[in-house]
Hints:
The chain is mainly alpha-helical. The protein is built from 7 helices and no strands.
Amino acid sequence: MKKLLSLIVKRRVAVGFVFAAVYAVSFKKGMPSAVMAGFLLVTIGETVRLLAALQLRKIEVLSTTGIYSVTRNPLYLGSFVVGCGFILMSFSAETIASSLFFLVVFSALYIYVYSRTIENEERSLSQKFGAEYAAYVTAVPRFFPSITSAKWRGPAQLSMSLFIRNGEYRTVTGILLIITFIFIK
């Protein structure tokens, strides 16, 4: 079991796409208000991801401005919001039990996988950036932004080449395919 969980953490992106595919195949469209609310969450989550992917220079520079000034892990936060949005799209009186089941399984797996991923990345960033990273950790929340402590640290330099280098086009494509599938189903 431990090896399986370790493999899931290592292959988290592929596992996420498999989870999304299983969900999409078993998906039953929810009531219109749930679909629209879910679509809004998906849009918000992907916007957070886009803002992060357009500025992230992995391991080269410590990103602390823009979206990284309100959460240290905007890509993971955005993914979580996207996932919750897709699950919300299936809510109806008829599907409430299965939708809640997917939400619980998704949340449990997400917390397990990404808490380990974030811990590993934090160790690496601490070694690479030292005191600069330590100051960043004390100033910016790990995951959920804090309204009371959020301090926007200037605009970030956004770059389309970073969007491509960071592979965000794959996430955008996946989201668009799932949304298309949901709306034509």
